[in-house]
Amino acid sequence: QKKRRAATARRQHLKSAMLQLAATEIEKEAAAKEVEKQNYLAEHCPPLSLPGSMQELQELCKKLHAKIEAVDEERYDTEVKLQKTNKELEDLSQKLFDLRGKFKRPPLRRVRMSADAMLRALLGSKHKVCMDLRANLKQVKKEDTEKEKDLRDVGDWRKNIEEKSGMEGRKKMFEAGE
User: Fold this and answer.
1) What's the first-to-final CA gap in the chain, in angstroms?
2) Which of 35, 127, 150, 155 has CB atoms 3.0–4.6 Å from 123's, for a disulfide?
3) Looking at residue 134, what DSSP letter applies?
4) Where in the sequence is the domain holding 96, given as residue range(s)?
5) Cα dihedral sign for 48, 51, 57, 62?
């Protein structure tokens, strides 16, 4: 039991020592980043000296606009490169996944849900959905359909074809021709 206590005490001591080392390393990295930031700003952003005359101010503004345009172009180029590499990474990871050929299909559960409930789930609760399909149908008058039916019967070409088909139809055509 003494060995266990000693081992756990040693483990705790090593753990605390590692945490202390990690904390000092993090502080060093933060200080190094700050120094690097200051150096970068000193190099790329010289202190601003405002000239006295209007002509010099206009020239300064023109220079600043030119620098801003150059930086924007660089930023755009780097964003495009980043998007391109991200797309390539996605494509390669998809190819890798396809090459492995091990697809885990999740178990599907049967869900009983009415059409109204499904539409409400898809569209959200703020949309009121009604699946009354008959409400949207067009009203048809019976008189119109009867007139159309009469017209169809008169000009129905299928009846004429059926009457003329076969030997009886040819016989009728022959008799009609005489």
Assistant:
1) 127
2) 127
3) G
4) 47-101
5) negative
